[in-house]
Write a structure and sequence with these properties.
The chain has 479 residues and is an all-alpha fold. Among the domains are: 168 residues; 56 residues, no CATH class. The protein has 29 helices and no strands. Helix 1 packs across helix 4 and helix 7 crosses helix 13. The N and C termini lie far apart (93 Å).
């Protein structure tokens, strides 16, 4: 049929009718055969693709076959029955989609397959920005020279995405992405996921139902364990998780996010944490997110301030409203890690860490309290100093956390001194009961000597001066 159309120059009605009949009966064979005999989509092949677009029944059968080729050929090197795994097939299938979009008259099938087509084309963009096989480069150069197409396959995939969106009456998305340089951002491998996130926001703004269907399709793909899709998937999901019910996909989603938390790439960790901040608010996801405690705790030491804040927010969302106890081991890890953040330069990190510290003490399981007491003592001095901070929110939160810690340790004497606002007596009482920790307390207080807050600076100097004068075992301070 293709040879006949090529020889005749103009398509005959009878031949095209026969072609439609064959297509409806054998869609998979028609798609693969047409891609093989006319990969570059010459004039005859273009007529055949457009003929398919004129019939809703044919289109319903051909679209899933083209989608299968676009999705699986570049990823899994899918072969035909005669072992032909031509690498240009995925790109050739995109050409077929493009021709169909030029003539489509029945948007029904397009609406049905839109989420799958969009995701497949987004991956086509990403795959085409990476190193392509020589055969693909040669193929595309031929297409570009003959048919005046974009200079590279990735730009052609973007043009196809735009046409697809316009057919779904999402022209506003296309225009907004253009205005925000989203399409250019999509073309770079290192910024591709940023553009996917932007696209999610724009589609959500224009059509929530379409956005919801794309989200569900992305979650379904996680069952296939496609690592190449994980970063753009998370970039899309973080923009829509606050209004889409993903509880059905909770386990696979948490598993995927856990891999990103352990990544050496800061951007992957940031995206995973953004998603977890949202998921941790959902009671149905609580158990799954709580399994990531070890990974989240390790992020409290991260040099990136934003990551530390988000990790603390995830923990706080998890313990807020929680009624089941926290295991002793988990509580110990957090009680040891959080005091290092009390002296953080960022006031928000300080406030969140103090609030989480208090919640952990309230939720630790009863049988583990005795074991936790030793690990709790190093936090007392930093926590006490924060009760005198000039930021009222931080001072109040620290005061409540300190009272909680003293009750936990059954130290009524420290509770009374804190309430009496006698800092000197408090420090004396704490040091007297924990003489072996004097050097440790000194190291904790030293940073406050340089504090811009006069009250904290004065308290630190008085404590250090007293220890240097009376505590003969303490190493003298330098100049």
């Amino acid at each position: 049929m293709h040879q006949g159309l090529t020889a005749n120059g103009s398509p005959g009605e009878e031949l095209l009718t026969q072609f439609l009949r064959v297509t409806k009966a054998y869609p998979a064979d028609v798609v693969v055969t047409l891609l093989r005999c006319a990969s570059s989509c010459d004039r005859a092949a273009a007529s055949m693709w457009r003929t398919i677009a004129s019939s809703e029944m044919a289109l319903e059968k051909v679209l899933p076959e083209l989608l299968y080729v676009i999705e699986d050929w570049p990823v899994h090197s899918t072969c035909t029955s005669d072992e032909d795994n031509t690498p240009v097939f995925a790109l050739a299938a995109t050409r077929g989609i493009w021709e169909i979009l030029q003539m489509i008259r029945c948007p029904g099938p397009l609406v049905e397959y839109f989420p799958c087509l969009l995701v497949a084309l987004l991956f086509q963009v990403l795959a085409s920005t990476e190193q392509m096989p020589e055969e693909v480069d040669t193929f595309w150069r031929g297409c570009q020279e003959q048919q005046n197409l974009p200079t590279n396959p990735s730009r052609f995939a973007v043009v196809t995405i735009k046409a697809l969106l316009c057919h779904l009456e999402c022209e506003a998305v296309v225009v907004s992405m253009e205005r925000k340089c989203g399409w250019d951002t999509l073309l770079r491998p290192d910024t591709h996921h940023y553009a996917v996130g932007l696209l999610a926001r724009e589609i959500r703004r224009v059509s929530s139902p379409l956005c919801s269907r794309i989200t569900l399709h992305l979650l379904e793909l996680q069952g296939r364990e496609e690592p190449h899709l994980e970063l753009p998937t998370v970039a899309f999901l973080v923009e829509v998780l606050d209004w889409v019910d993903v509880s059905e996909w909770g386990d696979s989603l948490v598993q995927m996010l856990s891999r990103h938390l352990l990544s050496a790439c800061p951007e992957r960790r940031r995206l995973a944490l953004r998603a977890l901040v949202v998921l941790s608010k959902d009671p149905a996801m609580a158990d799954g997110v709580w399994t990531l405690t070890e990974s989240l705790t390790s992020l409290l030491w991260d040099a990136d301030e934003e990551l530390v804040v988000m990790a603390l927010c995830v923990f706080l969302n998890e313990v807020r409203g929680r009624h089941t106890p926290i295991s002793t081991l988990t509580a110990q890890e957090l009680v040891e890690a959080l005091p290092t953040l009390f002296g953080y330069e960022n006031i928000r990190v300080q406030l969140l860490s103090v609030r989480l510290f208090r919640k952990v003490l309230k939720l630790v399981e009863e049988e583990g309290k005795k074991e936790l007491e030793t690990h709790l003592i190093p936090s007392l001095m930093p926590l006490f100093f924060l009760t005198n901070d000039e930021n009222e929110d931080l001072a109040d939160a620290s005061w409540e956390a300190a009272i909680c810690a003293f009750r936990f340790l059954r130290r009524k004497d420290l509770t009374n001194l804190l309430k009496a606002d006698k800092p000197g007596w408090f420090c004396d009482c704490l040091v007297e009961s924990e003489k072996k920790r004097v050097v440790e307390f000194m190291c904790q207080i030293l940073p406050y000597v340089e504090s811009p807050q006069e009250r904290l600076k004065e308290m630190a100097l008085r404590f250090i001066g007293w220890q240097c004068h009376w505590g003969g075992a303490v190493t003298p301070l330098g100049p």
